[in-house]
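#structure-requests
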Amino acid sequence: MKKLTWIGLLAAVTLVPAVAMAQSAKIRLFPDRVDIGAFFQGIEVNIQGEMPPGCEAVVEIQGAPAPEVLLRKGRRGGLWMTVGEIQVENAPNLYLVLSSTSDIPQLQGQETPWGFPALRSRLKFQGVPKDQEMDLFSKEFLELKKSEELYRSLPGALKVGNSPEGQISLTGACPLPAKIPPGNYQVKLSVLKDGRVLEQKKEKLEVKMVGFPALLASMAYNQGAFYGVVAVLIAIATGFIMGFLFKGKAEH
């Protein structure tokens, strides 16, 4: 009888990790590498994942913080002109947030670490003359990034369904803009239940320059003088081509 009891306990201990693994969240990207070529106009990255039943999901795609300098405009003598510079710190070069619900879920009893309000609280501005203008500049900076499609909030972009393993499947498409800088991006899946984070999974998305753009970037970094000559020649050649095309249309 004792022998049977020990066998039962051993079976239970063996099955617990298997059940836990079956309920673990997963996330995958297709493709997980994006090449920026001469005719790159943006691309959609497909997201697939799984999570336990009864949960909500948030996916963030975020780049490294990149300092930026913005020109501040103002009126001087009735004319609009540049009156100073504003340095922006802690701003990622890309921030996309998707969710499985009709809005971006919030945590209960603690500060939510994702979404535009959280991103806005992390931004720092140097060169803003008055504290009361900080909110204005942070709002306008976010609007600028939204207009460039580098910052986007996509509630409901993750569709849920049933998975054969008893999990809930996640599928969605995330648009990457044509202006996306090359680099490595963190993709993080957060699984929530009752306003609390149950689990987080991370993947990496690589964006790389290839072909002629990669050649120009390498030349600009390693051979600045030669790159300047090439850039001038390209500009002259483009001018001749455009002149020839417009001249031909004018004659017709």
